[in-house]
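Note to self: keep these together.
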Amino acid sequence: MLERKVIQDISVIDINGDIDFREMIRIKDVISSLIEKEQTKVVLNLKAVDHINYLSIGVLLERLRILRTLNGDLKLVGMSYYLRKIFMVVGMDQFFEEYTSLEEAIESFAEDWEGSGTYH
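Structure:
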């Protein structure tokens, strides 16, 4: 189940349950509709996610690259140890910024625009 809210100019997508390939396509479509509306700062809240299909993580990487091209970003929050291990095993942990709290993820967008303006 997906639930969307906006905090400042950041779209937060809360996800519940397991993320299989079909659910990942729904997430991709939601992010695509945000991009069409020029809302390029996105946080995926994975706190209530038990499992993610490792084959579908590449779909997120594709959205991440598009968002960064548009001076936005896709950040992850609330990953369990189990989810973090899945991202690590498929080598995707190096591409995504991950935060323990939603507040930290939201604040990180402000930090991205200060200083040198480089990506992490």
